[in-house]
Predict the 3D structure of the following.
Amino acid sequence: MSSLSTSGREQTRSRRSPSDLLTSSSGRASRHERESRLDSLASGAGRPTPLSSRRENPIRAERQTTDDGGPKDYKKMYEQALQTNEKLKTRLEESRRELARIQARLERATQKQSKMSDRSNVMDTEKREKQMLEKKISEMEDELKVRTELKNENQRLKDENGALIRVISKLSK
């Protein structure tokens, strides 16, 4: 069997063309180069981090990549963003409620002021009406006095007229 397995290996090797061999060896080399570059980029300041040390202590390697600007904990950042958004939403709601309370207080104050101004307008109107009525009353009292004087004078003149008629009638007899 060992002769069969060695001959099978030789057949697969012989089936590959020389260009295939170059690409497969260069593929291995390019993969090794990529790993080296990734390791050097992950370490930060151009210090190569051996792959074996990264495998031995993955938490330390992860912290190094996070601290050096590498992969970040997006879930944690997302949760923090959600918390911040919730806090901001809460503050916004509180601000809106406070605004509504202040607007209600302002509306009440405006209504009170308008009622007071209405009352003051009513009071001013009532004062004017009262003054006008008082003025009319005083004028009517004056007219009443004049009227009483005129009645008295009219009565006096009637009495005089009657006396004159009697005197004239006695003289004409």
